[in-house]
Amino acid sequence: MRLLLTTDTHLTPRYPNRALPAELWEQIDAADVVVHAGDWMDPALLDAVEVRSARLVACWGNNDGDDLRARLPETAVAEVGGLRLAVTHETGAAQGREQRCDARFGPGGDTPVDVLVFGHSHIPWDTTTPGGVRLLNPGSPTERRRQPACTYMTAEIRDGVLSAVRTHELPPGAPRSR
């Protein structure tokens, strides 16, 4: 099972020339499951991703308005290829993240999962908590901020095991489309 992980796309009608990289659309089309951890900012993008995704697991982010919040949960939880996966936008500061995530998403937490995908920082992140929860932040495919490149992630699930997790860097000036 192929996964595409993204977040912080920050598309908005205020910036009509901003669009997703064509490479990301290709990955969306090819994935069995698309995971988006919020900050869409444009309901039209959610519509387009829903149409092109075989399956979408997504949440809203802090920059998403009422229209997106009405359609998406703050935290989505799904069974994906034998794994319990959660997606939420914010997990707080990097310091103490593993402990906070274990408290909520670890074996003794309110929402125990195997994998948590999050966003907000635009900084790619791949760690495992002491309780065994894999934490993944794919960065942003549209706003690199202080990172060297815009990014997204892909992964595979085989026999209930997450594997082949890869962070992809998008080249500056990559072709973009809506």
From TrEMBL:
Keyword Metal-binding in record: yes
Q: The organism sits in which domain of life? A: Bacteria
Transmembrane spans? none
Class of enzymatic activity (EC top level): hydrolase
Keyword annotations: Metal-binding
Cofactor field: a divalent metal cation
Which Pfam families does this UniProt record tie to the protein? Answer: Metallophos_2
SUPFAM superfamilies, sorted: Metallo-dependent phosphatases
Location of the Calcineurin-like phosphoesterase domain: 1-159
Enzyme Commission identifier(s)? 3.1.4.-
Which family does this protein fall into?
Answer: Belongs to the metallophosphoesterase superfamily. YfcE family.
Q: Could you tell me what this protein is called?
A: Phosphoesterase
